[in-house]
Amino acid sequence: IQRETDTLGNKLKDTFQSKLLQTFAYALIGIATRALRQVYQNVVELDKAITDLQIASGKTREETARLVKSYADLARQLGATTIEVAASADTWLRQGYDIEEANELIKNSMMLSKLGQIESAEAATALTSAMRGYKMEVQDSASIVDKFTAVDMKAAVSAGDIATAMAETAASAEV
C-alpha cells in the first residue's frame, strides 16, 4: 500500500508539475505574441508618421527619418512617445510653420499636453487657437503654457481644461 501510495503521489506530483509548466509555457507564448503584435503596430504607426511628416515638410524620406530621430530624443526628454511628437510636428508643419518654429511649438504643445493631461493633438489645437486669437507669435507660445499651468496650480481647474476653454473662446475674444 505504501508503494502504491508513493507511486500515485509521484504521478500526481508529476502531473501537477507538467500542467503547471504547460500553463506557464502558454502564458509565456501569449505574452510574447502580444509583445510582437505591439512592436508590429508601433512600426506601422511610426512609418505612417514618417510618411505624414515627409508630405508636410517636403523633405526626402532620409531627411524625414533623421528628423524623426531627433523627435525621438525630444520625446524621451518630455516623457512622450515618438509618435506623439511626430504627430505634433505634422500638425505644426501643416499650419505653415518652418522646422525651427515647429520644433519650438512641438516642445511647448507637448509640455501643455503632459502638464494639462490632454492629448497632444488637443494641446496643439489649443495652443494654435490661443496664439491666433490673441495675435501672439511662436516665441510667445511658452508663456501661454506657463500661464495655463500657473492658473492650474492656483485654481481647481487643469491646464488642459483652461487651454480647451481658451481655444473655444479665442475667436470671440478677437472681436
Description:
- The chain has 175 residues and is an all-alpha fold.
- The protein contains seven helices and no strands.
- It has helices at residues 2-57, 61-78, 82-94, 99-116, 120-133, 141-154, 159-174.
- Helix 3 (82-94) packs across helix 4 and helix 4 (99-116) crosses helix 5.
- The longest helix is centred in the N-terminal third of the chain and has 56 residues, at 2-57.
- It is elongated, with a radius of gyration of 26 Å.
- The model has no long low-confidence stretch (mean pLDDT 85).
Helix content: over 70%
Low-confidence stretches at least 5 residues in length (pLDDT < 50)? none
Number of strands: 0
Euclidean distance between termini CA atoms? 97 Å
Q: Please describe the biggest sheet, giving its number of strands, its sense, and whether it closes into a barrel.
A: none
Give the amount of beta strand, in percent: under 5%
By DSSP (H or I, 4+ residues per run), the number of helices equals 7
Mean pLDDT, rounded to whole units?
A: 85
Shape: elongated
Q: What oligomeric state is this?
A: single chain
Helix-and-strand structural type? mainly alpha
Order of helices and strands: HHHHHHH
Instruction: Write down the Rg.
Output: 26 Å
